[in-house]
């Protein structure tokens, strides 16, 4: 049975209690029923409670003509409640799923707006949780997906909170009617071509006619699965702790794990650990695409297997798996002459290069490997560069990006590789700073 209406503000405050010291509570305000109730509840509570600063954010997608009037409506509601409103216009990227593209654009705006010690509040409720569970169940989701939408998670530099997940849509409607609230009815919410709308209007009503407690039961199942997911995450951390070993190539800034501690685990624990690690790096593959992991894991020692995923690639080299994305997947551009070796040299798409000590006499050029290069080493004579890189276990994905210092046709140094990166007698070394992920994305 639902809790008495009088409990709604009390429950909301209880759910938000851990976040009372935040700098700002920013409400994601679409103007629809759910977010209107959340905004009204918080604005009323702020009259009697000491709350963080309240503000609202409305994201305008521009996908339908009727939506052009919504920012004005939202401004009117916020003005009436004394809550400042920020309207953000976004461009929805075309793609197979309009729902997903709109969501991505919306959350992109939320991430940009959420600063340190700020929280974004969204108004998803118990019925939304049930719809999410059913939708993901029909798509064959695992425990991670079936745990539903979390009540809180990191967002941008702050946090996202969903404080109404234990409240039904009927309770929100009753509150809105009691307080004579005005809200927007989005016409697209009636369009049954969208899967969630079909579930909401065609499937769930039939289920709740037969099983009145279906929505509450599904929300409860999502909570159980969320707890199970937490246990799986703890197990993943245990397994990953053994694989997060140091590498002599940590200076690359490329996420990596030692393979053998993971490969010793059962297949299910391997998938659990790798999924947990990849979740922060890419959209995860469905179960049909995990054969790529097995191919990567089981490849022979001299192979260079690659597992291509949505947002990058997983490579195997030197007994480790390496996550490559953004600039690592694009070729480094030609550099040419280093006109002023006393200054750091920006390598297009490949970080920066500088000397420590007094640079050698020029003219100096920077090139990348093409094959067939050789170096003269003081103690070893003429040596093939490929063999030297093999001796040092340089991962294959790095070799084409390692800056090579030339004077004329003479290879003087290979950046960052001890014994190859300079001249001990003359006291100089060639230091390469690969681009960071942020540099690559920018």
Automatic annotation (TrEMBL):
InterPro entries: Lysidine-tRNA-synth_C (IPR012796), Rossmann-like_a/b/a_fold (IPR014729), TilS/TtcA_N (IPR011063), tRNA_Ile_lys_synt (IPR012094), tRNA_Ile_lys_synt_N (IPR012795), tRNA_Ile_lys_synt_subst-bd (IPR015262). It holds the Pfam family ATP_bind_3. GO terms for molecular function: tRNA(Ile)-lysidine synthase activity. ATP binds at residues 30-35. Keywords: ATP-binding, Cytoplasm, Ligase, Nucleotide-binding, tRNA processing. It catalyses: cytidine(34) in tRNA(Ile2) + L-lysine + ATP = lysidine(34) in tRNA(Ile2) + AMP + diphosphate + H(+). Its EC number is 6.3.4.19. It is found in: Cytoplasm. Residues 364-432 form the Lysidine-tRNA(Ile) synthetase C-terminal domain. It comes from the Bacteria. The N-terminal region contains the highly conserved SGGXDS motif, predicted to be a P-loop motif involved in ATP binding. HAMAP family: tRNA_Ile_lys_synt. Ligates lysine onto the cytidine present at position 34 of the AUA codon-specific tRNA(Ile) that contains the anticodon CAU, in an ATP-dependent manner. Cytidine is converted to lysidine, thus changing the amino acid specificity of the tRNA from methionine to isoleucine. Belongs to the tRNA(Ile)-lysidine synthase family. This is tRNA(Ile)-lysidine synthase. It comes from Pseudomonas hormoni. The lineage of its organism: Bacteria, Pseudomonadati, Pseudomonadota, Gammaproteobacteria, Pseudomonadales. The gene is tilS.
């Amino acid at each position: 049975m639902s809790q008495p209406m009088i409990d709604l503000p009390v429950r909301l405050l209880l759910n938000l209690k851990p976040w009372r010291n935040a700098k700002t509570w920013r409400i994601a305000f679409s103007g629809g029923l759910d977010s209107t109730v959340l905004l009204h509840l918080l604005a009323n509570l702020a009259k009697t409670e000491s709350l963080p600063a309240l503000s609202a954010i409305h994201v305008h997608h521009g996908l339908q003509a009727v939506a052009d009037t919504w920012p004005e409506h939202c401004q009117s509601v916020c003005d009436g409640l004394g809550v400042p409103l920020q309207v953000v216009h976004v461009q929805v990227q075309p793609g197979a799923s309009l729902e997903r593209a709109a969501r991505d654009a919306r959350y992109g705006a939320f991430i940009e707006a959420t600063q340190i010690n700020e929280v974004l509040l969204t108004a998803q409720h118990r019925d939304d949780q049930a719809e999410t569970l059913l939708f993901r169940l029909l798509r064959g989701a695992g425990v991670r997906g079936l745990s539903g939408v979390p009540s809180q998670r990191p967002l941008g530099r702050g946090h996202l909170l969903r404080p109404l997940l234990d409240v039904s849509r009927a309770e929100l409607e009753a509150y809105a009617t009691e307080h004579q609230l005005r809200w927007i009815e989005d016409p697209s919410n009636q369009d049954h071509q969208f899967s969630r709308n079909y579930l909401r209007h065609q499937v769930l009503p039939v289920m709740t006619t037969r099983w009145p407690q279906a929505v509450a039961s599904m929300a409860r199942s999502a909570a159980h699965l969320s707890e199970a997911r937490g246990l799986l995450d703890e197990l993943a951390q245990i397994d990953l702790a053994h694989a997060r070993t140091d590498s002599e190539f940590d200076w690359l800034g490329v996420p990596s794990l030692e393979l053998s501690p993971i490969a010793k685990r059962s297949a299910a624990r391997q998938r659990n650990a790798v999924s947990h690690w990849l979740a922060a790096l890419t959209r995860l593959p469905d179960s049909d695409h995990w054969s790529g992991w097995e191919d990567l894991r089981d490849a022979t020692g001299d192979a260079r297997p690659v597992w291509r995923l949505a947002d990058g690639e997983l490579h195997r080299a030197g007994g480790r798996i390496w996550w490559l994305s953004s600039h690592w997947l694009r070729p480094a551009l030609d550099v040419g002459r280093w006109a002023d070796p006393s200054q750091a040299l920006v390598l297009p798409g490949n970080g920066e290069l500088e000397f420590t000590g007094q640079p050698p006499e020029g003219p100096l050029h920077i090139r990348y490997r093409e094959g067939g290069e050789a170096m003269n080493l003081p103690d070893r004579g003429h040596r093939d560069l490929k063999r030297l890189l093999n001796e040092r276990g340089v991962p294959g994905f790095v070799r084409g990006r390692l800056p090579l210092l030339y004077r004329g046709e003479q290879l003087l140094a290979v950046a960052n590789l001890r014994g190859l990166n300079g001249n001990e007698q003359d006291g100089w070394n060639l230091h390469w700073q690969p681009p960071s992920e942020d540099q690559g994305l920018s």
